[in-house]
Specification:
single chain; 196 residues; alpha+beta; Glutaredoxin; 2 domains; four-stranded mixed sheet; 4 strands; 6% strand; globular
């Protein structure tokens, strides 16, 4: 099994951590959708990270669908059956935090400053702040005991946001999430999967 994409992507990182948590052997190819476009397109012509190439050489995309596949082939599920709606809510909010952080990064880094659309940035920033506000209220449900998909997704999202948009969301605004992330980042699955 091969996981294609860089670990600075929260979507790639959440899959890599889940693979390790499920003890599924895989090879990681750290290809950038920007710098390694041609090499990436040889594996997956749509150049989408993460890409997972299964042992049967089926190419899968989208971290949620990849994780659904991994749950199906593993003896262990990372999505709790008990309190599943809450787990889905936490996972969805974590993914929303990733999405909105990516939108801010792209607007800030891919457009010249004079062409950045400030109303759009304000809207996305408001959405990101609302998402983290909800996650902070629900943070007591994140335990990493055992490490499940909501834990992985939220911790990865927090680290990603702090690395690239720390001016928007600060640990002071979300002390429970900051403490949770610090705890998660010390787990072997996270330590062995550092952001590149």
């Amino acid at each position: 099994m091969q996981l294609i994409g860089m670990l600075d992507s929260p979507y790639v990182r959440r899959v890599a951590i889940a693979l390790k948590r499920l003890d599924i052997p895989f090879e990681h190819q750290s290809l950038s959708v920007f710098r390694d476009f041609n090499a990436f397109s040889q594996i997956n012509p749509i150049v989408k990270a993460p890409t997972l190439v299964t042992d049967d050489e089926i190419v899968l995309v989208d971290s949620t669908l990849i994780l659904q596949y991994l749950d199906g082939i593993s003896a262990t599920s990372l999505m709790p059956k008990i309190a599943q709606p809450q787990a889905l809510r936490l996972t969805g909010l974590g993914l929303m935090a990733c999405d909105k952080t990516v939108q801010i990064i792209y607007e800030r880094t891919l457009r010249p400053r004079e062409k950045q659309h400030q109303p759009w940035l304000k809207r996305v920033t408001t959405q990101l702040q609302a998402t983290y506000g909800q996650l902070e209220q629900l943070a007591d449900a994140l335990t990493c005991n055992p490490l499940m998909q909501p834990d992985i997704t939220v911790a990865v999202a927090w680290r990603f946001t702090q690395l690239y948009t720390a001016d928007v969301i600060t640990p002071e605004n979300c002390p429970k999430l900051a403490a949770f992330s610090t705890k998660a980042e010390k787990l072997p699955e996270f330590v062995s999967t550092p952001v590149e």
